[in-house]
Amino acid sequence: MSCHLKYLLVPVTVLFSNCSLIERSCENLECYMVLIEAEKTAIGSICFLAGPFTLLENALVLGLIAATASLRQRPSYLFIGSLALADVFASCFFTTSFLDFHLFRRSDGPTAYLFKLGGVTMAFTSSVGSLLLTALDRYLCIYQASSYKVLLTRRRALLSLLILWSTTIFISFLPLMGWRCHTDLTPPCSRLFPYINQGYLACWTSFILVLLALILGAYALILWKAHRHESSMTSLQGAAGTGHARMRMDIRLARTFGLILLILVGCWLPALSFMLADVSVILTHTQQRAFAFCSTLCLLNSAVNPLLYALRCRELRVALLQFLQRLCVIGRCKMSSEDLSPEPPSTEDNNFTGISEEEMPRTRTTRLHSISEKVSNQQLNVRK
């Protein structure tokens, strides 16, 4: 009998019926395709809207950083570029694989499914890892302001990104390399992911929780340092200083980081909670459907990341405005050429064909001179 030890306390008749049901329903991954039609419509709408939007905005951020030489040289924007790249992968891998599995009910084999899941895992793990590097960058900028440029050089930033992506790729494709469920689907080890070993799921979930805890700790230390700095400045300048004229820096940072952490924890904690529960108990179909909705929150987090981390930076906003101005100039040139080309020249305008705008005043003056000469000639003829 190949049933899991969780069923040992269940009566024998119920045990055999459950085992046969699991083995029969999971042959074509049917036990994981639990969404009803209304839920498919809702999740499909979320993915079809959030997926392309996430792809476009993160690709825009990545293109701006790659096209601006001054931004490519700074470690902060290298980390933001890594975050944008990870979110681009997340929008592609998660949207396509999630819709293909839950909406179109494609039943892939173990190798194909684990490869797709490895791409999704790599994207989300790299996204959280890039968020950690961004938090550590801001921590060093606050705590080691005098030696920040010496501590975090461009070379060290690239090395840290290389280590991050190498580690995430290795961890994400461990199930494809052999760390998978030893019973396959009879019975399944996990009720959330086919062919996934519960030990691997527990390790990956714990790893993401550790990264989130480090991000929270880094921002907490930044807020504490900013609060101490503002308190010392207020005591030196007095109660009637600039603190009453404008909001204190620590309060502004608290609001910004509070929003960042609220979105980060709110998007990741529900899905991670279901993963931890899947390791210890057998999830019902209702809980599986709830996890499907919670997993889309991770995609929404990738959609919000450019607004929180990239477009709040002044240099990147300036690069975006310059890019938009160039597009406007190109658009105006195309509009002017389109306005001139479609209309066939009339008989009165034949003399203006092929003349540039700089030469237009000259042509007009010559026409005026010719007209005045004709008028003067006619007057002379009348006098004669």
TrEMBL record:
This is Cannabinoid receptor 2. Residues 336-384 are annotated as: Disordered. One of its GO terms (molecular function) is cannabinoid receptor activity. It is a multi-pass membrane protein. Residues 57-309 form the G-protein coupled receptors family 1 profile domain. Residues 373-384 have a biased composition (Polar residues). One of its GO terms (cellular component) is neuron projection. InterPro entries: Cnbnoid_rcpt, GPCR_Rhodpsn, GPCR_Rhodpsn_7TM. It holds the Pfam family 7tm_1. Keywords: Cell membrane, Cell projection, G-protein coupled receptor, Glycoprotein, Membrane, Receptor, Transducer, Transmembrane, Transmembrane helix. It is found in: Cell membrane; Cell projection, Neuron projection. Belongs to the G-protein coupled receptor 1 family. The chain crosses the membrane at residues 42-65, 77-99, 111-136, 157-179, 199-224, 256-277, 289-311.
